[in-house]
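Section 5.1 Outputs to date
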Amino acid sequence: MLAVLTGLGLSAAAGLNAYIPLLVVGMLARHTDLVRLPAEFEWLTNGWVLALLGVLLAAEVVLDKVAVVDSLNDAVQTFVRPAAGGAVFAATDAAGRLDSSLFMTEFMTDHPWIGWALGIVVALVVHLTKTSIRPVVNAGTLGTGAPVVSTVEDTVSLGMSILAILAPIIALIGVIMLAFVSFRMLRAFRRRRRRRRGISASSGGYSPATTGQDRTLRP
């Protein structure tokens, strides 16, 4: 069961940044005993794979902090983040099966596609939430909020990845809190945007009768 919670936490982290949880899992499996990946996922510990993930992460960190460019990057990441979520969920679930023989573990062993499916769905939901909030933030802050929000997302993704491995129950609580905060932020920004539109519309209107009266009073 803890392996499933770990997979959920890592998949949610992948929805924010595809490469951070993959790097965390790969690095920990390569250099520590905290993660022990089965043979089919040992490619995550390969030095060349980790180096490539590092390069992709560096590009993601830069592109995601530039307004407008971040939206284009999010469009591309619509395919990458869910795939990464499915991979880390399946990898950590398979790793958990090495040390357990519970019914849940046996069920996941007989149906390995469930891990991929759950990871893809969780990462996709988080990704779609992120892509919904970012344009609203950019419009509300004239693009200045993009680097701030992106930095917060990267930090949350890293923290969530580490917690998912070390304390999966806390990571699950973090996922719930992330969903709640994202929902509140989206509502707040949309409400502020509608308020600004209402103010601009009211300030741009005028009364023809008043305008004509003002003209007659002018010398």
